[in-house]
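Changelog entry: the SRPBCC family protein record was regenerated in this release. Current contents:
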Amino acid sequence: MRSIRKLAESLWGAVQIATQLALGPVLHRWRTRWGATDAEAHRPLPGDDLVSRPDWDYTHAITIDAPRAAVWPWLVQLGQARGGFYSYEGLENLVGCGIHNVEEIRPELQQLHEGDIVRLHRTGYGPAVVELEPRRALVLGGDPDAHGSRAVWSFHLVELPDGRTRLIERGRNRVGRGLLATLGFGPYLLDPVGFVMSRKMLRTIKRLAETVGRAAGSSRRP
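Regenerated structure tokens:
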């Protein structure tokens, strides 16, 4: 049953990616501001200085009916050979990523430090943890590559007055020289494909944090 559900999810993810690729620039602005208010999209956040003048960027956001403490453990687990990326696992594995999403908080995955690599692929490729402020910010990035391309990928938790949390995901990209840099760091493929995968990730983190939070609340009741 689990395998059938994953297959159905992957097919749905593929349909969404095909749609976003077909519409291309028409939905670019909507994709790069999905769920975010104007204030959030323009708000300076930790990690922005790593790519101070991006060729393109995005800010996604979602409201989670749980406190920051319930959301943070899911972010700490991100990564290949860790908790996965809570997205379309089947699509990620089509390109050999070797992702296996975890839907519970595992103590052995809660250790993450600045300088650690958050792997995107089974080859070990992935950004480093540049900044980590527990329950507030996780910033991933690296030095410019040989062609001058650079990217920063960051997650931010903002506490709301009613005990809920805003989870903000931001990406900032500098495109280097050459066709491969344009394809790998430019918006033409990364924007539509990344958007579909990121939206699924954010929605899954929301579901997991809210579900675990409710379960914990129930277990504390007399």
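The first strand starts at residue 56 and ends at 64.
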